[in-house]
């Protein structure tokens, strides 16, 4: 995996060329370090990004040709394949027919060679044990066959590492095997190389489960679509369908592309996108997403995005990209491993030479102990423990409709002590409706005309309350509005037929000086009912319109769950305090703050941070953008249909289910616990065998078995995150 969080990645010039390579043999920090060391001082290389989980290397450069990069990697024995090259797009096209999938498939030839290696290694041990001679020609012959069939690839990598002065695990293992052969431990050398090669195969297969967890989502999108072409319905490849094409979906079929329903209705299972367990009704005008399942009815829809830009594709692409960013724990582990290897190697050298030189001890036993230390110096279990856990966590979240934009947020979610939630569209459904139309001061006869004026102004605004007023008017055309202006956190104003009108909330009426005792009483009464009241005014109040929203289903259960997790919940809204308190009371929030402008929300985030520490902000990803950016973690609700939220939020909740908030925190805490377990397991095994090696009680094969065993333990432990999370109870 990764090197730095996005904010800390060295800047690359905007005009730099970009080369993306798939390297199937690059799945461990060993290869990453080898490549970094090789390219570190190479002229023209401006930056590199490693995605070990996808086995991809991105090179930013200013070279005239990328042949030098490809050849350098080939000399390292890594066999790169060009996925994309900004200098020569046809070069990438040449490789389109290649299977650039990062899936790990072990060739039959390798299985046969490993079988021969295992059988001959065991046979070598058996012959040596029964004859009592570890250097007889049958023992040596069997051991050589085992080493050459099972360990030739490791020895080649070790030689490449030596040429580039890289202390990686292949070099250390090769040195240990050669050292064992040099002192006559042929059977042990054979068993060691076989165990190492076998464990590497198992580890690679295990890592693929995490690697492919998110890619499995893409398999949910059908390859073909039923498209209307010149009045007839035809089966076309989904990748060839263009925007604005009309697609038909029959009962039981998966939706091939994103779009908007134009005819028909149905219920659709949106679990692949949002994680919702219940099907959602879809009618004309509703958005539809690729990969979702049409359950009952048939409908036609107009395509709004090509296959590569569907919501599902962007989710998968986003998770794959953030796999290339190191989480805090991984940066710590990588730094530790950087010093750990040379320290243990130096210790091994001292163990090999000091006792014979200073204490006249026999050389061979101490050299053997040093070889065991070299095996212990391999940090594979330690460095692999973090990425497999983080990637499993990111994939598990994405499959449940929670898009986490990097391992840093997965790790830090456990620290959340307070959450600030916007009201409209977050705690409430965001679909308010007009409940009251009340003319002011003898304007009852003009109620319809005044409502038409209010709807004309509201039609120009994107606020949910304004939208409710606009759609409520169904009696005729709207007035033309000139000089329209949005008044942040208060309302709007504009000119109709040369006369200036304001349409806004209680705060705006105060600012205009229009609040009298009668108007205050009306507004106060409506607000105490949990309604949002807005007023139309010219040089005086003309009309009061009340709008009511409903809280989200299971919202109260989610708030209760957050409290059980020790998270303080605050509601921040630009609505009036009475309405804020009424809505907050329905879901069990005690701290509700109303009449907040965008700057007030920023100050509220600062205050919550000072009081609680780590703070998250939950909003719609657009109107709450400043507060989302200010918080330690910004959550965007209902992000499936919002490009902005998918791109800018730290965590995007693909639907409007508040229960995903406690689910995210539980996942983060679970991931942290597994990270701690993995690091503890890896270090504990190292320390135990370090002590055993110094005491002379550890053998080479025991050290290899323990090291590779530890690697497998941490891999499978990390994969536990892919298991289902406990759902939030609705009761």
From TrEMBL:
Similarity field: Belongs to the cation transport ATPase (P-type) (TC 3.A.3) family. Type IB subfamily.
Topology term for the membrane: Multi-pass membrane protein
Catalysis performed (reactions): Zn(2+)(in) + ATP + H2O = Zn(2+)(out) + ADP + phosphate + H(+); Cu(+)(in) + ATP + H2O = Cu(+)(out) + ADP + phosphate + H(+)
InterPro entries attached to this UniProt entry: ATPase_P-typ_cyto_dom_N (IPR023299), ATPase_P-typ_P_site (IPR018303), ATPase_P-typ_TM_dom_sf (IPR023298), ATPase_P-typ_transduc_dom_A_sf (IPR008250), ATPase_P-type_domA (IPR059000), Cation_Transport_ATPase_IB (IPR051014), HAD-like_sf (IPR036412), HAD_sf (IPR023214)
GO MF annotations, alphabetized: ATP binding; ATP hydrolysis activity; cadmium ion transmembrane transporter activity; metal ion binding; P-type monovalent copper transporter activity; P-type zinc transporter activity
Parts of the chain that traverse the membrane: 111-130, 136-155, 339-358, 370-397, 674-694, 700-719
Protein location: Cell membrane; Endomembrane system
Cellular compartments per GO CC: endomembrane system; plasma membrane
Origin species: Oxalicibacterium solurbis
The organism's place on the tree of life at top rank: Bacteria
Pfam families for the chain: E1-E2_ATPase, Hydrolase
Keywords assigned by UniProt, alphabetized: ATP-binding, Cell membrane, Copper, Copper transport, Ion transport, Membrane, Metal-binding, Nucleotide-binding, Translocase, Transmembrane, Transmembrane helix, Transport
Descriptive protein name: Metal-transporting P-type ATPase
Coiled coil keyword on record: no
Database matches in NCBIfam families: ATPase-IB_hvy, ATPase_P-type
PROSITE patterns assigned: ATPASE_E1_E2, HMA_2
All residue ranges annotated as the HMA domain in the record: 17-81
